[in-house]
Known about the structure:
Distance between the termini: 39 Å
Amino acid sequence: MRNAFGYILGFLVFVAGIPALMWWVSGRDLxxxxxxxxxxxxxxxxxxxxxxxxxxxxxxxxxxxxxPFDAYNHELAPRTKHLMTDGPYRFSRNPMLLGVYIYYIxxxxxxxxxxxxxxxxxxxxxxxxxxxxxxxxxxxDFGEEYRVYREKVPRYLFRL
Length: 160
């Protein structure tokens, strides 16, 4: 049951809630559709982002034998038992978030307004703080194995 709670909460917050907030602050009505080229780009980005996030979650469940949802040191689902360094985790230490960010960029392109970008920036700052907290836990849980991995693989996609 605890597993299902984490997945449902993650879906409600990241896939539905934040995009709904972006839509609301944009002021667009629910029938808004951008010009076709932008709509296609937006849909492709949203699809790719969700696909990367789902792949990462499934990989974490299978290989890590746990779940991703650990909010500010409050375990909402059983933590992973193994450090993931392959699959989507070979090019990003946080492919789930990378996928969510790509999804949100697709939403922003769809809406064609600045306010969703402000929401996105706030979410990135908030989740980066969360990621830093998770990195401390991963270092405590996996020690040198995590430190070596952290040196080889960027937090998201590129080293900034």
